[in-house]
Specification:
Rbsml_bL25/Gln-tRNA_synth_N, cytoplasm, Glu/Gln-tRNA-synth_Ib_codon-bd, 7-stranded mixed beta sheet, Rossmann fold, ATP binding, elongated, Glutamyl-tRNA Synthetase, domain 3, about 575 residues, ligase, Ribosomal Protein L25, Chain P
């Protein structure tokens, strides 16, 4: 597991040490740090990208430099403007901005093509007719060197002609590939004549049908960094073996700026998948409702679920920047979410599994109001009023006809406190034809208003409640982890086997304080004893409120029930 650090007075990470040394020794052009965040727009960003976003934009902010947003749009078959727009929205949600520095790999297609032509003319690249399967066979293995393609010594003039004809669309996909002529015996398999261009007939989101050949990532990415004068190209550890290819590309004659690549450990969290391909499969096959499903580990998903940007930035700061891969516990992320929401969430009472209470000695038709603090952690949060009347709802689990040992909530003859309101005592019950309790008749102590009595007697149990006739009725969605295994698919080889069947439980009619009817998207709430919630940004509308559970409370009633043996 990665070492967890606090965000206060933390030591410099290894990248910060490199940057500070570069600045102290004036190695950077104009002594300016220039980073970039370069996602491929082939899906929505996930939580793992938050670490990279915060690192790249954060370093630029800390050292008064700049961070570019560059969309690596070199694979038009998998890319879409929807993804591009979502990426921008996610970065802005986290509080970062790239200003005028928005770039695309496709901005450099003409330059990349010219560089490829120059490599051919210099005898450093050739057009290869090997199929993908043959190329893999010729490439060798990690322990055996590759062997030269029969086309490796094709004459320069023929290479030029074929490459131009590839560009003109004269050949089908897979017929030819442009490859760099480096070293088929290199111990680094990425240096064994890597592909530079392939034929692809797909309409590009930005360039349309102008091109039918597209540059490969290992060729495009480093040259794009060089063109943009990036000083520190920061990527995750899986690109460490690609660094020689990066250095080769940035050393091509005519490239004036030489950036440097540095690798850090990506963010891995147990119970979550961080693969766009697998996440896309979940979306396309309706295992979830979309990329922004609150169970998805996408930035749009956690935003819709109610995670705040501050909590996610705190989370990645606590994880830190390391050189060694590890797995972070899901509970740390939820801890950061709770820590943040505890400070900002408005407290409301909500009853999710209602049991009706009728206070027999309370006057018919009378309604009175109690004042509740919006957030005890925030003295400036204000207060709101809660309606109280003869007919209330409490949680069904807060009543037991035959109590077990240690149970301190409502049962026949027992007195409890209703939060903010009065002491009540259960007197009798009503049942339906199946023997289920449907109503509890109680009496209240008028002298206990506000939760105190003249004789200062105390009760052990306190329940939250909602006025039956003056409240907000809403749909509540109880979200949990999408997968039930810490490492989805580890045992069976199929991550779908570990999908959690209880990852979403819908409560069609929950009863919440009247205050909730004016709740806005972007507001945070703690439903007392039930968890943290937010207004659903997609399905809530006037006349139909939908609340999503962001996370449970730290000390849940479920733990207490388990301790007492209550099912």
């Amino acid at each position: 597991m990665e070492e967890i650090k606090t965000t206060e007075d933390r030591p410099l990470n290894f990248i910060e040490k490199i940057i500070e040394d570069d600045l102290a020794n004036h190695r950077l052009p104009n002594d300016t740090v220039v980073t970039r965040f370069p996602p491929e727009p082939n899906g929505y960003l996930h939580i793992g990208h938050i670490k990279s976003i915060c690192l790249n934009f954060g370093l630029a902010e800390k050292y008064h430099g700049r961070c570019h947003l560059r969309l690596d749009d070199t694979n038009p078959a998998k890319e879409d403007m929807e993804y591009i727009n979502s990426i921008k929205e996610d970065i802005h949600w986290l509080g970062f901005d790239w200003g005028k520095h928005e770039y695309y790999a496709s901005d450099y297609y003409d330059q990349l093509f010219e560089i490829a032509v120059r490599l051919i003319k210099e005898g450093k690249a050739y057009v290869d007719s090997l199929s993908a399967e043959e190329m893999k066979e010729y490439r060798g293995t990690l322990t055996e060197p590759g062997k030269n393609s029969p086309d490796r010594d094709r004459p320069i003039e023929e290479n030029l002609r074929l490459f131009m004809e590839m560009k003109e669309g004269k050949y089908p996909e897979g017929a030819y590939t442009l490859r760099a002529k480096i070293d088929m015996a290199s111990p680094n398999i990425n240096m064994r004549d890597p592909a530079l261009y392939r034929i692809k007939y797909a309409t590009h989101p930005r360039t349309g049908d102008k091109w039918c050949i597209y540059p490969m990532y290992d060729f495009t990415h480093p040259i794009s960094d060089a063109i943009e004068n990036i000083t520190h190209s920061i990527c995750t550890l899986e690109f460490e073996d690609h660094r020689p290819a990066y250095d080769w590309a940035t050393s091509i004659d005519g490239i004036e700026h030489t950036p440097h690549q540095y690798e850090f450990a990506r963010l891995n969290i147990n119970y979550l998948l961080m693969s766009k391909r697998k996440l896309l499969y979940l979306v396309n096959n309706n295992f979830v409702t979309g990329w922004d499903d609150p169970r998805m580990p996408t930035i749009s998903g956690v935003r819709r679920r109610g995670y705040s940007p501050e909590s996610m930035k705190d989370f990645v700061a606590r994880v830190g920047v390391a050189k060694v891969e590890g797995v972070v516990d899901y509970s740390l992320m939820e801890f950061c979410v709770r820590e943040d929401l505890n400070k900002r969430a408005e407290r409301l009472m909500a009853v999710l599994d209602p049991l009706e209470i009728e206070i027999d000695n309370y006057p018919d038709g009378k309604v009175e109001y109690f004042t509740a603090e919006n957030n005890v952690e925030d003295p400036n949060s204000g207060t709101h009023e809660i309606a109280f009347s003869k007919h209330l709802y409490i949680e069904r689990e807060d009543f037991m006809e035959v109590p077990v040992k240690g149970y301190h909530r409502l049962y026949p003859g027992n007195e409890i406190r209703l939060k903010y309101a009065y002491y009540i005592t259960a007197q009798s019950i009503e049942k339906d034809e199946n023997g289920n309790v449907i109503k509890v008749h109680c009496t209240y102590d008028p002298e206990s208003r506000g939760g105190d009595t003249p004789d200062k007697r105390k009760v052990k149990g306190t329940s939250h409640w909602v006025c039956r006739d003056i409240c907000t009725v809403a749909e509540v969605r109880q979200y949990d982890k999408l997968f039930k295994s810490e490492c989805p698919g580890a045992e069976t080889g199929n991550y779908l086997d570990d999908l959690n069947p209880d990852s979403l439980v819908v409560i069609p009619k929950a009863y919440i304080e009247k205050e909730a009817e004016n709740a806005k998207v972007g507001s945070y709430f703690q439903f007392i004893r039930n968890g943290y919630y937010c207004v659903d940004s997609k399905d809530s509308k006037p006349g139909k409120m939908v609340f999503n559970r962001t996370c449970t409370l730290k000390d849940s009633w479920a733990k207490q029930k388990a301790k007492m043996g209550i099912k």
